[in-house]
Write a structure and sequence with these properties.
The protein is an alpha/beta fold. The protein is built from 3 helices and 7 strands.
Length: about 130
């Protein structure tokens, strides 16, 4: 007795969902890579020694235009002391890291250093790039 065999279909992979997933991953990585770059464009001064700083939650940044930022939030120079006092009280830390563009004046650096000390900072570190 002969049985009628049905022809088996070969398994196949649907490619449309795979292409959708690849495009979603591509978009995700393209968008997330934009956030890795620093928001404040500046050129840090160079130094021969390199010191690793532990993570401090209070960073004062001055860009080449002279704009002052505390943790990426723009602050007027007149309000810097009050903002630092408030942030130090919130964090319970009195360590400040200074990031300044190489083109800012020495007077600006000293003014910010003095303001941080008056606000109660016990430690003031300067971030720089290592000379290669």
């Amino acid at each position: 007795m002969d049985f009628i065999r049905t022809k088996k279909e070969r398994p196949h992979i649907e490619i449309t969902p795979l292409v959708d997933i690849i495009f979603l991953l591509l978009i995700f990585f393209m968008l997330s890579s934009n956030f890795i770059q620093p928001m404040i464009m500046m050129e840090l001064p160079k130094a021969m020694s390199e010191e690793k700083l532990e993570k401090v939650d209070l960073v004062v940044t001055v860009d080449r235009k002279g704009s002052v930022y505390v943790n990426k939030e723009r602050v007027h120079l007149e309000d810097l002391r009050a903002v630092l006092e408030e942030r130090m009280a919130q964090l319970g830390k009195y360590d400040v890291i200074f990031r300044g563009d190489a083109s800012i004046g020495y007077d600006t650096f000293v003014h910010i250093l003095d303001t941080a000390k008056l606000a109660g900072a016990t430690s003031f570190s300067v971030e720089h790039e290592k000379v290669q």
